Amino acid sequence: MRLDINTDAAVNFSDKLERMSRSALPNAVRNTLNSAAFDVKQKTMPASASAEFTQRRKTFFKAKSRVGMAKGWDINQMNSKIGFIGGGDNQAVRDLEKQDRGGKIGGRKFIPSDDARVTKSLGRNVRNKYKYENIKNVKNVRDFKGNSWGARFLKASHNAGVGGFVVNTSGGSWGAILEITSLRRGLAGYKKIYTLNKSEVVSVKSTGFMRKASNKSAKKLNRFYEENAKRQIKRFKK
């Protein structure tokens, strides 16, 4: 976004502020830029994210975003910023740039199924019990002997027991982590918790959610400038 204080709509305020005090115009410009950044953080960005993403944590975008406020007195050098923090150690934040611009996200070997989520809904978080780091007692089908994949799967299932997990990483479309739900002789009941993604990469299309949010807030710049200019004029008149 770029603020032009010499447009027809703004020039009268700019002239008044310059005549009133050396600090009035810089104050109005600085506060306007900060108003725009906070508008993105608090209004347009959450709305844009809601339209583009399934939000499993409603507070994620506000909690992980920060405003860098405009400072100083040189209006030609002033700028405010809005962005996301925690990229170095937070996978979700690191992935946001790819989701905004499009690209490939790595490190996705296993994709959680609906059965792994709260209320079995795609829009909900993975249940604590089924979070990848919490899954214990996992038996790999390839570690068991048998004349067929089915025979090896049964042995792995009985070894894991009901409530245990079996992983298959070499069964073609059957690549998955399965929870064993029941056992009988020659039979094993299960539900799929994760699907194996052998490439470990997921391609995502550009959402442009931050660009859309910024453009919406940019359209409010003249209004923000008018509001902040009036505050400065009122302040100096007093």
If you compute it from the alpha carbons, what radius of gyration comes out, rounded to the nearest whole angstrom?
27 Å
Percentage of residues in helical conformation: 25-40%
| β-strand number | 9
Largest β sheet strand count, sense and barrel closure: 5 strands, mixed
Q: Looking at the structure, what is the overall shape?
A: rod-shaped
Please state the structural category. Answer: alpha+beta
Low-confidence stretches: none
Beta-strand percentage range: 15-25%
| Average of per-residue pLDDT values | 81
Q: SSE string, helix = H, strand = E?
A: HHHEEHEEEHEEEEHH
**Count of DSSP H/I helices:** 7
| Gap from first CA to last CA | 32 Å
User: What is the strand arrangement across the widest sheet?
Assistant: 4-8-7-6-5
Instruction: Please tell me the total number of domains.
Output: 2
Can you summarize this structure?
The protein is of the alpha+beta class. It has 7 helices and 9 strands, in the order αααββαβββαββββαα.
Architecture blueprint of SSEs:
Blueprint (H helix, E strand, L loop, with lengths): L10 H10 L3 H29 L7 H5 E4 L12 E4 L6 H11 L1 E4 L3 E3 L25 E3 L8 H12 L4 E4 L7 E9 L2 E10 L4 E4 L4 H10 L2 H17 L1
Parallel strand pairs: 5-6
Antiparallel strand pairs: 1-2, 3-9, 4-8, 6-7, 7-8
Helix pairs in contact: 1-7, 2-6, 2-7
